[in-house]
From TrEMBL:
Alphabetically ordered keywords of this record: Acyltransferase, Amino-acid biosynthesis, Cytoplasm, Methionine biosynthesis, Transferase
Naturally occurring in which organism (per UniProt): Croceicoccus marinus
Description of how the protein assembles with itself and partners: Homodimer.
Taxon lineage: Bacteria, Pseudomonadati, Pseudomonadota, Alphaproteobacteria, Sphingomonadales
Protein name listed in UniProt: Homoserine O-acetyltransferase
Protein purpose: Transfers an acetyl group from acetyl-CoA to L-homoserine, forming acetyl-L-homoserine.
Length: 379
């Protein structure tokens, strides 16, 4: 793990001068993009790596989270001498629009000064990337050395590859997919309904009681249940069995009640409740919807008909590496293999590897030495 004190780290917020045009046909204004950088941009401005975060991630890639105090979500990967080496690279990570860690989202102030709430426009993965392109332009970087992202971050990398293929030299996609499946949409809908069924959601207008922090009020119970349901999809049966099995939580016998008798129940309740301390419920609605709308082949079809996925990568010349995990049932290996075939059919250089890890979808965030070797070798 990196010594964060040894990394040159800066935090900024970019206020865009112009509205951001969206896939829906609407525009977003005002637009702010919160981001952090690690390392230093060289004189040639050609050593920049953009890391794209997942659904509930943020820009605090390799520095402590300001709300929870926990280490950065990829601190074991980003830093001096680590797979993404900040002695060599200038690493950028921005909070996606729609989120709640400084970039414009439903908890942000609209032009009238009141929180957007449900007036915030529905966004797409491509809209998130449009904001990132504006940030990279602002930083004076014509071409990124590489893009890296896992899960929803991988979707952003794929959107870059399909829509801005000449702006980077390499793309690393971890545990991701080129479209959201019916099963994934279904899990997200359960979470959204849990939030909207909570009486404290109030149609999304719960910010008036929030003071300075929208995460302190609102549909906390619904958001906790949404997180619990989603968290199950990030794990694997093997991992759950090894970590919890059917072991009881701080007791020798069952209570014959509805308390958390089992360790796995207690674990999920903790995951749900702790999530409400750092995330906004409306942001969860908007970001899951953006993921559900993601379908690269559909985006690049003609005359209203979905295209072949290879057509999405028609302009790609940069090299791409796809990584999947054998216990990931949320974005299984078949999804990464489908992308690899499409990139190959488009004539771009591509490599693909399936790694073995017991952690399920979350493997890309956890200690998997084989992944570290892939990242370092590819970059």
């Amino acid at each position: 793990m990196a010594d964060t004190a040894a990394i040159h780290t800066e935090s900024h917020v970019l206020a865009m001068a112009q509205p951001l045009l969206l896939d829906s046909g609407r525009s977003l204004a005002p637009v702010e993009i919160a981001y952090q950088t690690y390392g230093r941009l060289n004189a040639a401005r050609d050593n920049a790596i953009l890391v794209c975060h997942a659904l509930t991630g943020d820009q605090h890639l390799a520095s402590p989270h300001p709300k929870t105090g926990k280490p950065g979500w990829w601190q074991r990967v980003v830093g001096p001498g680590l797979p993404i080496d900040t002695d060599r690279f200038f690493v950028i990570c921005s909070n996606v629009i729609g989120s709640c860690m400084g970039s414009s989202g439903p908890s942000s102030a609209a032009e009238d000064g009141a929180p957007f709430a449900m007036r915030f426009p529905v966004i797409t993965i491509r809209d998130m990337v449009r904001a990132q392109v504006a940030l990279v332009d602002h930083l004076g970087i014509d071409r990124l050395h590489a893009l890296v992202g896992g899960s929803m971050g991988g979707m952003q990398v794929l959107s870059w590859a399909a829509n801005w293929p000449d702006r980077f030299g390499a793309a690393l996609v971890l545990a991701s997919a080129a479209r959201h499946s019916a099963q994934n949409i279904a899990f997200h809908e359960v979470g959204r309904q849990a939030i909207m069924a909570d009486p404290e959601w109030k149609g999304g207008d719960y910010y008036s009681e929030a003071g300075d922090d929208p995460r302190k009020v609102g549909p906390e119970s619904g958001l906790a249940v949404a997180r619990m349901a989603a968290h199950i999809t990030y794990l694997s049966e093997q991992g759950l069995t090894e970590k919890f099995g059917r072991r009881l939580q701080d007791r020798e016998t069952k209570t014959f009640g509805f308390d958390a008798d089992f360790q796995v129940e207690s674990y999920l309740r903790y995951q749900g409740l702790s999530f409400t301390d750092r995330f906004d419920a409306n942001s969860y609605l908007y970001i899951t919807r953006a993921m559900d709308y993601f379908d690269l082949a559909e985006e690049h079809g003609t005359h209203g008909k979905p295209g072949n996925l290879a057509e999405a990568f028609a302009g790609l010349k940069a090299r791409m590496c796809l990584v999947s995990f054998d216990t990931d049932w949320l974005y299984p290996t078949s999804e990464s293999r489908r992308i690899a075939h499409a990139v190959n059919a488009a004539g771009a250089p591509v490599s693909f590897v399936e790694l073995s890890a017991p952690f399920g979808h979350d493997s890309f965030l956890l200690d998997v030495p084989a992944l570290d070797r892939v990242i370092a070798g590819f970059l």
